[in-house]
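Appendix B, record 7
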Amino acid sequence: MKERFPQGFMWGGATAANQVEGAYDKDGKGLSIVDAIPGGKARLSIVSSPEFDFSLDTERYTYPNHKGIDHYHRFREDIALFAEMGFKCYRFSIAWTRIYPNGVEQQPNEAGLNHYQQVIDTCIAHGIEPVITISHYEMPLHLANAFGGWQGREVIGHFERFARTVLERFGQQVKYWMTFNEINSAFHFPIMSQGLTVKTGALEPQAKFQALHNQFVASSLAVKIAHETNPEIKIGCMILYATSYGFDCNPVNQLAALKERQSSDFYCADVQVGGKYPYYAKSLWQSLGVKLDIQPGDLELLKAHPVDYIGFSYYMSRTIYATNPEAAAAHGNLLGGARNPFLEASDWGWEIDPTGLRIALNELYDRYEKPLFIVENGLGAIDKPDENHYVADDYRINYLRQHINAMAEAVEDGVDLMGYTPWGCIDLVSMSTGEMSKRYGMIYVDLDDNINGTGDRYRKKSFHWYKQVIATNGQDLG
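Structure tokens (predicted):
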């Protein structure tokens, strides 16, 4: 039987510090922006209001990220479960505020560094390759308040110090890194990726594009540091990718879809992979009234230090329409657009499109010819455990099976695919809603939306299924 995936394919799972660790104020950790973002279905609406300013209000809101699933204290137990599934790698992030509590300190917090040293050592002891995201939606709250998030040029230097600290400390043990999680999500929810509120420019193209430029410079500095620290390091960008379709064959809708792909899907990767701004950038800036502050040496830095690979998340596709405003909207689809009548949707309205993943892989590889790494993909669903805490999540298995088949087809097409780390290998606090009830994991965590419960871990049906997938290198999908 022909191998569907290359030998050494990196099967694993993914989490983020701010969604699993909890312990938000322990061992010297400072407040991050997510520590000040309420949980609940209205989360994105709350932070999109003109009044929101990162003030904590425990009388009105809950903050489930403060406790998470206590991965901070239970990481050994969790990583042992990942090893039982057969993980080849584990993608996690380092909380910036555990290393530099306010982002501006000159010396790192050793307690934070010691914690991640233990996480890395535990992974390696289990034969699991750590894959680290340097910044995953959790910039220090002080930097957001003091400098208006990433639009402040000063943040570049503070990030450079953070990146240098973790890369020099862990760069001999950890080969795979990413700079910014879903950097292009700034076009959809800049509060998470850039620390921008409405008051500080979240609705203003000038602020968002300037913040992106500063992040591009910071990312290139991290790539430079990584390669100087250890030439064996592979450091990638990480983008949110949603395959885009025109609503119909009307050329106006097809052009709208093309423009949406350029601005939302490709803009960031064009810079981070290609080392320069794309041909359409000046036209895009002009149409939005954007004038970037590009300092001497910035463009040379981008060109000299592009990323080694492209990490990306894929959850859904989207359908773009310019001519039919009354078309049924895809309510709940995180990135909006029209309802696609050919697709089913998740419990939260995210449209399920495995063929769109094959298209995404081909589009990205065709454009860049750099190795690709699917570092997020999964189904957020309501899980109902039985009296023994067992979840028969065939719906999740079916989702993952279809997407892994699409991956195999893309590999057959000729795409260079490094690995697959579905989100999230264990239940965690959802980014989009701040809920535990929107579950992604193959491990059930006994906690509700208010983080009440035992916190005990239980293997779902998908746990055993994914173990078999990994053991057969994707040959046996059940």
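Remarks on this record: The longest helix spans residues 205-229. The two ends are 16 Å apart (CA to CA).
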